[in-house]
Design brief:
Order of helices and strands of chain C: HHHEHEEHEHEHEH
Strand content of chain A: under 5%
Number of strands of chain C: 6
Radius of gyration of chain C: 23 Å
Shape of chain A: globular
Mean pLDDT of chain C: 85
Low-confidence stretches of chain A: none
Number of helices of chain A: 9
Number of helices of chain C: 8
Number of strands of chain A: 2
Helix content of chain A: 55-70%
Strand order of the largest sheet of chain A: 1-2
Largest sheet of chain C: 4 strands, parallel
Oligomer: heterotrimer
Largest interface: A-B, 130 and 122 residues
Strand order of the largest sheet of chain C: 2-1-3-4
Strand content of chain C: 5-15%
Distance between the termini of chain A: 61 Å
Chains: A mainly alpha, B mainly alpha, C alpha/beta
Chain lengths: 196, 175, 199
């Protein structure tokens, strides 16, 4: 019965071993896909290399489908899986700021670790910057705390918010992702088409 | 297009994505939670501040939030251990693929110094954005995305939109 | 499109499509359709109701404290409560006819315990979502505003009697005084523990 931690099969120490193992696999696949290379990542935003989109949404679709079917089979008790709570305004604002940082830096927190451990100094530089950003945020916290805690909606999923069944949202997301992948392939082919 | 050296070609991105998706699914099934990255840095920063300036850390709600029982060992924090794993996994893959190289990935028109400056600046913005949003591409986009969380999808859409809008401004760094 | 990509796309399309069909045809709501709080809503129990059950010696009642920390349990627990941290609920054998009551610390702990216990085969599970705090406030330190209407005063009289049964200190607030000013959890706990009310 899953999640294994909720039913007592995995305790805190075992959980840390799991963290290491999952992290290893995560970092391994990120590097395999080339996401440890900032130039490749940044290509996303110039329509020359849409690897970020493909990897990210393939991962989302895989985990989303896996979770749906394991829950449908009674293996995973879905209410026990922690859904990060929604804070509409700060998450929108944070997303905007993060997105700018992403195209400026070319790496996100996870991929900058992979870049750094692949020997890239720019990966280390992004990590240094990120620590700085966190310190800036924390020091400024008293001023922005109200905004930070604004518009809380608790753990809220799209099926719950729209009143649409979970499986229908899953199906729609898969469809959108597949269409997106087809478009990405087309866009990339045009990007490498020889110019006169 | 940048040509590789003796390095192996990258894995099919869809397969890499499926691989990551399976890892994420295992996290849900085993731990009842997803993956993350920025949170590990938040904890590390808070722990560092607690050691360097304990009174200040205890006084500030943002630092204190990551130190519920005082500066507990960083090595018992799930996300921190996970991020250590990410680094090791990346290193292993790079070594196996002949892609380990001390150097700087940058566009053709920018200098190394310029690239590093952009990297730090980008990192600062992402640090702030990730704190506001309670996560980054790993914790919000991947984890929250797979869980169909409203706020997470809002974060992903906003991040991609902002990236595309800001891209023309930093074209010099990449192309 | 390469064969691998076509294969992946095909599998995704089939699994996604079936997910949609299952949800529409199956009828039974998936748990991701409702948040945890809604899942346990029908089995919610207030501290007042539990107190009434305990005073009236309701039979076949088992009370589980699902907080992880045994020190917290030693410091304060509800009457007749048994310590059963979430991770150890697997060891609680289901007994037909028993009513389980679970409480935690006011977080989603009790709700999660409900889901775990249901999955393990227990039938009757009631949840006190606000946890020890609910008991501390409603039973051990209930208060009534000085300007409360008559119906509220009558209801409070019954609550006060229940409170005194469990060693609580019901009181009517002074004019202008509001609850919450010194009913902080820690303060309540100190007052309660000092008077030795850990049944």
């Amino acid at each position: 019965m899953a999640p294994l931690t909720e039913f007592g099969y995995v305790g805190p120490s075992a959980g840390l071993l799991v963290a290491l193992g999952l992290g290893l696999a995560f970092g391994f696949f990120l590097e395999r896909g080339g996401l440890g290379n900032a130039v490749k990542l940044a290509g996303q935003f110039y329509f020359t290399d849409l690897t970020v989109f493909k990897v990210m949404f393939a991962a989302i679709v895989t985990a989303m489908l896996g979770l749906f079917w394991l829950a449908a089979a009674g293996v995973v008790r879905l209410p026990l899986v922690f859904v990060p709570p929604t804070f509409v305004l700060p998450q929108l604002a944070g997303g905007l700021v993060f997105g700018v940082g992403f195209v400026v830096g070319g790496l996100c927190p996870g991929t900058s670790c992979v870049s750094a451990s692949s020997g890239r100094l720019d990966g280390i530089a992004v990590l240094v910057g990120m620590v700085g950003g966190i310190v800036i945020f924390n020091e400024a916290f008293p001023l922005i705390e109200a905004f930070y805690r604004a518009t809380p909606l608790g753990s809220l999923t799209i099926p719950q918010a729209l009143g649409v069944p979970h499986g229908v949202v899953v199906a729609a997301t898969v469809a959108a992702a597949l269409l997106g992948f087809a478009a990405a392939e087309r866009i990339e082919r045009r990007a490498v088409a020889p110019r006169g | 297009m940048p040509t590789g050296r003796a390095a192996q070609p990258y894995l099919n991105p869809y397969l890499a994505g499926v691989g990551i998706g399976v890892v994420l699914l295992l996290a849900f099934v085993i731990m009842g939670r997803g993956l993350g990255a920025s949170g590990a840095f938040s904890t590390a920063v808070a722990t560092g501040m607690a050691v360097a300036a304990p009174a200040h850390a205890a006084d500030n709600a943002a630092y204190a939030a990551y130190l519920p029982d005082g500066p507990t060992s960083l090595f018992r924090d799930w996300l921190f251990i996970e991020i250590v794993g990410v680094a090791i996994g990346g290193l292993l893959s790079a070594l196996l693929a002949g892609r380990f190289r001390i150097g700087v990935d940058k566009g053709p028109r920018v200098t190394v110094r310029g690239r590093l400056a952009y990297a730090v600046a980008g990192g600062v913005l992402m640090g702030i954005g990730a704190k506001l949003a309670r996560g980054c591409t790993s914790g919000q986009a991947l984890t929250g995305g797979a869980l169909l969380s409203v706020g997470s999808w809002a974060f992903v859409l906003a991040a991609f939109a902002a990236g595309y809008l800001a891209a023309p401004l930093v074209r010099r760094a990449w192309t | 499109m390469t064969r691998i990509n076509a294969g992946l796309a095909g599998v995704a399309a089939v699994l996604g499509g079936l997910a949609g069909i299952l949800s529409l045809a199956g009828g039974r709501a998936s748990p991701l359709d409702q948040p945890l709080s809604a899942v346990v809503e029908a089995d919610r129990l207030s501290a007042l109701e539990l107190a009434t059950w305990l005073r009236d010696r309701k039979p076949n009642l088992t009370i589980l404290d699902v907080r992880p920390d045994s020190a917290a349990f030693e410091e304060f627990r509800l009457p007749r409560a048994r310590h059963a941290p979430l991770a150890e609920l697997r060891t609680v054998a289901p007994e037909p006819g028993t009513t389980l009551v679970v409480y935690g610390d006011g977080s989603d702990l009790a709700g999660r315990a409900w889901v775990v216990l249901k999955a393990l085969g227990h039938d009757t599970i009631r949840v006190m979502p606000d946890g020890v705090g609910d008991w501390l406030v409603a039973i051990l330190n209930p208060t009534l505003p000085s300007d409360a209407p008559p119906e509220a005063r009558d209801a409070f009289a019954a609550q006060a009697e229940l409170s005194r049964y469990f060693g609580g200190l019901p009181r009517i607030l002074r004019p202008g005084e509001r609850t919450g000013s010194d009913t902080g959890r820690a303060a309540l706990l100190r007052n309660t523990v000092r008077r030795g009310c850990a049944f």
